[in-house]
Structure formats: structure tokens, C-alpha cells
Amino acid sequence: MFKQLRAGADGSAIASTAAGLGVLADEELMQLVYSGQAAAFEAVYDRHADAAFSLAYRMCGQRALAEDVVQEAFLSLWRSGARYDRGRGSVRTWVLGVVHNRAIDALRRRTVYDRGRVSEDGIEERLVAPERTDVEAARRDEAREVRDALRQLPDEQCRVIELAYFGGLTHVEIASMLDTPVGTVKGRMRLGLAKMRMALGDPAEVL
Amino acid sequence: MDTGETHMDGGHVDDEGCGGNAAPYVLGALTADEHEAFRVHLESCSVCREEVAALQLVASALPAAAPQLSAPPALKRRVMSSVLDDARRRESRAADVRASHDAADARGGADARVAARGGSGGRAGAWLRWRPNVAVATLAAAVIALAVVALTSGGGAGGTRVIPATIVFPRASASLSVSDGRAQLDVAGMPQSALGRVYEVWTKRSASASPQPTDALFTVSSAGDATVGVPGGVDDVREVMVTSEPLGGSRVPTLPALIVARVS
Questions:
Q1: Listed residue (A175, A195, A194) closest to A185, CA to CA
Q2: B183-215: per-residue pLDDT in tens?
Q3: End-to-end CA gap in chain B
Q4: How confident is the model at residue B90 (pLDDT cuts 50, 70, 90)?
Q5: Does A156 touch chain B (CB under 8 A)?
Q6: Which of A90, A186, A191 to mutate to test the interface with B (most CBs of B within 10 A)?
Q7: Among residues A53, A84, A91, A127, which is most buried (max CB within 10 A)?
Q8: Contact (Cβ atoms closer than 8 angstroms) between residue B241 and residue B202
Q9: Which residues does residue B260 pair with via DSSP β-bridges, in sequence order?
Q10: Model ipTM?
Q11: Distance separating alpha carbons of residues B161 and A195, to the nearest angstrom
Q12: Contact status of A7 with chain B (Cβ, < 8 Å)
């Protein structure tokens, strides 16, 4: 699907092959995406689609809905890629942020009681991403660190963070669900995140 | 907002919705209205901004806590199908615009001649409709003419010739300044080189010659700017090129050129 992107006035090829795109940093690829280069977009998709789908599936619990969320998120990235601001984080963080927001929108269109986190039987086993590169293996290790940091939190702090981030619930909904004051829910969120930050050191390096 | 109360206890909330909203904000747990109100509040509260920045680092790492799965191949086919459809539509629209401009240029010239001869009102009307395109074409021609004059007459101080370069990044620019047989490459808006890689300058002496490596390896500033001298003279150089290479540079280009400046 990779195509020549551009040629010089004398016909000399200018960075456009699949190999050329493969070594470009995400930020470099985004410059090409801005100008409508489908091949560059495909390279960005290939790098981050697994993480995007994993997050969407974790939040939605349904494969079809997760796919819709990821599709909406990437197409919004393609159609309004100029919104990416490198000063606010990596492309991966930005992509996952878009997926997160889209998933929240999808979840909030449903009623609170429809939002079961029950996954489809066996889908994890069928879709588990293989470790194809050293980078992916490193990311797998880092993901383990994040999961460990989350699990080590007191149950009530872990619960509110999971309900908020992965469940798409508002702090008011969580307070109602847990029959707990809103201020307490916010405090648990704050303390849980602060503890995770200490456990992870510099989480900016995790992703 | 400066009440003297710490934000670290998680219980600080005042009338502005300050402090306690930082955690739900980064977790996406505020309602749309609350989110927008807090976003506006952040613009004027440095304490909350710092707290959000610190907590956002953790929130950004949370996706890694989800079981990692492979995206279904069919999903990619659907996404890329839409993307390629978009790309084709854009290209089609661009081709239409180009054709329209070409027709405008041709008709504008002919109609201008007719108008000058006192031609029919219908033709003059057509000229008026195309006038914006003609104006653009005229302006472009003027700019090109000025550039040609500048280049052929020695342009800048000391007889410096400034050669615009072709660059692959749409929002970046590059130019080569040649003076007394020596050249300097200026780039702006270039992306940072990828991890473990550096930009390398090459010279090419003919269309069929292989690019020759130079000692000029460079990275760009946070703004994407760099100025780098091209080692050796460029009197017999046809092109100056830049590629992305592994740290330390390469003896032959490992990737296609990112920048090409035609010297002669």
C-alpha cells in the first residue's frame, strides 16, 4: 500500500518508500500525514493500532464497539491531523488520548447499567498481540509495571481509577455507584494517581 | 487561586472548582461542562496546571494496564479504505483546481486581449470572473521574476546566490546560500531526527553520479532550525542532498533524500 509520495524536479525520489517511512519518527510521519500522505498515515496506524484497540476493548468490553471507536479515532486523526501538538506529548499518547475520549463518548451514550466490563469469552486469547520486536517486548515489560503499580494500590483507590479511566464513569456516577461522597471519590483518585507516580518513577518513559 | 492550602491532600476544593478536580480531569471523569470549566480555570491557575501536568503523566501511562491485543486485520482494511477514498477525493479536487487555474490563465490572457481591443461585454464578463486567478498568476509571475533577477544578478550582499531546496516535509523549508563557491544550508521547521539517527549532507556532481558523503552531520533545534556549511567547494557540484542516517553517518545513503538543492 506504500506508494511514492513525492519526487524531485528531476525525478529523483524523495523519502517515500516503505523503508524510508519505517525509520521516520512519529513526529516526522505526522508532518506527512498533515499533507495527506496515506502511506505515512498507514505507518502511524501500524505502530499504534494494537495499543489503541487494546485500550478501546478494555473500555468497551465488546469487540464491535471497540473497533468502531478505534476506526473513529484514527479517521479523526487523519482528517484533522493538524491538531497534534508535539509540545503536549508523544504521538502515541495523543492517539491513545483520542481513543480514550471516543470510548468515553461511546460509553456515555449507553446507560450506566449497560456498561458491563464483561468481555467476550476467549477474545483475549484469540487476539493477544505477539511480541514481534524488541520495542514491543520492552513495552510489554513496561505495561506489566503499570499494571503492578495499579494493583498495589488500596482497593478503593484502584477501583475509582479503573471506573473513571476504563469505565468512562464520571466522579458523580462513581460516587453514586459506591455510595460514597464525591469529595472522597476525588481524593481517592488523587491519592491513587500520586502513589502510582511514585511507583513508576517517570511514567513519561513508560510509553 | 492561592489559598495557601496544599493540593496534595486531594481534599482541596474551593468555589472555583480548584484542586480536587485535577485527578478526575486527567482521568476523563468530569462531565463535559465541568471539564470545560476546569480547562478554562487552568488558564489562570498555575498551581492546578502543575498538578494536572504531574497527574497527566500517570494517566497517560494507564492504557498500558489494559491487556495488550492485536487489532483485527479487517479493522485496518476498513480504516485504510476510508483513508484512501479521502486521498483520492482530495487528489481529484486538487486536479480540478489545477485544471481550473490552467483554464483561467489561458482564458484570462485571451480575454484580456479581447478586453483591450474593446471586445464583447460577454467576454469581458468572463475575464472579470477569472480575474482572481489572473491576479494570482500575475503575482506569482512577478515573484518569480524578482527571484530570477535576484539570483542572476547576484541577489544578496557579496554576490550570495540563494537557492530554494525541495524538502519532503510540507511545513519545513530549506535553502542553500552559495557565495564564492562555498555553500551553506539553512533549514527551518524540520522534524527532530529519529532516535539514533542524524541528518547527513551529501553532494552529487552529475545526474548519474553517486552521492558523495560529507562530514556535515547535523540535528535541528527544538524549533526545527539548523544552519550547516557544506564542506568543500560546490563549483562542480550539481546537487546538495540531505538524508537521515544512523549516528556517525553513512558512506552511501541508506534512505532516499529528504532535501535536494539543485546547485547547477
A1: A175
A2: 989 988 888 777 667 788 999 998 888 999 988
A3: 62
A4: confident
A5: no
A6: A186
A7: A53
A8: yes
A9: B166, B241
A10: 0.79
A11: 60
A12: no
